[in-house]
Task: structure prediction
Amino acid sequence: MTSAETTPWTSFETTISDLERNGTNALQLLTTGAVPAVIFRNAFPADECRSLVEFLTDQELMYRSGDPRIDQRAIPAERVDRWTQQGLNPGQSTRRRIDIGTSLGNLGDDKERFLADSARTHALFQQLFRDRPNPIDVVYRSLQAMAPGRTVRTAREPGPEPGSWQEYGPAIFRIHYGGYTYGPHFDSVRLRENRSSYAVYRFEHQLAGVLCIQNSTLEGRSAQAIMHRQMWKPEIDPLLNNGQFPEYCREQQIENISVELEPGDLYFFNTGTIHEVPGVPGDEPRIVLATFIGTSDDDSEIMVWS
Ligand SMILES: O=C(O)CCC(=O)C(=O)O
Ligand SMILES: [Fe+2]
Result:
């Protein structure tokens, strides 16, 4: 879609109770690309976000910026860059990210390892959120309100025993240090990663639900996602891979919008939309709680994973 498109393209801001009252099909707004994002402001209280960061730091699951232990825990840059070649940090510095949780994108090539790691994540999250508000619940409840009548559940594969299931990780905390940048990309277990041996491969649409836990801010600017009014198609791939996408957007006058989030704000978007998150090397890391979501128009089940 280009700016020749006359319908406005703006985020849809809502709440769980508004959706329940009005019966808006917010899921469809995303699957059809009618809006760049569905935003739930203040979905998780900002002071709970701050308290959670303190807690995760105390638990040594993450570290403050500058802590030398970050490099030991950071996932190898080649792994997180596998699908997004572009968008190195300012000054070409190494991209550093700590994940708390299990990533299908990183571990999915080894299904057994992925499912074992997912089981450990479930145990860890159960322990972490035994006595404190669980932000993952907010993501699932908001998604459920967007999709009334559908069954929203963590993605799963049939287990070894008849009738048993093995779940994927339910969500993942991603802690981005030093201005970590996501260049323009799309996400798809179907069209990009080709994960045909996984149950989530069957879905027609892939969405993401991302809760902002902490912003990275420098001189009044913070790292925020930019959505381009362009769905992925095969012809876009060379442009994404060669770094020519910005030029293409200028030539084709493809509009974009920035999704401005404060800690506690939650946004959902269609991951087939080309998107990016330019980094801002602030003092604190940017922290999000992220999920992917699979849905099809004629499928009563919606699966969530990380
Ligand atoms: O960190 C974000 O806000 C989005 C990252 C991203 O590209 C994704 O979750 O697909
Ligand atoms: Fe993405």
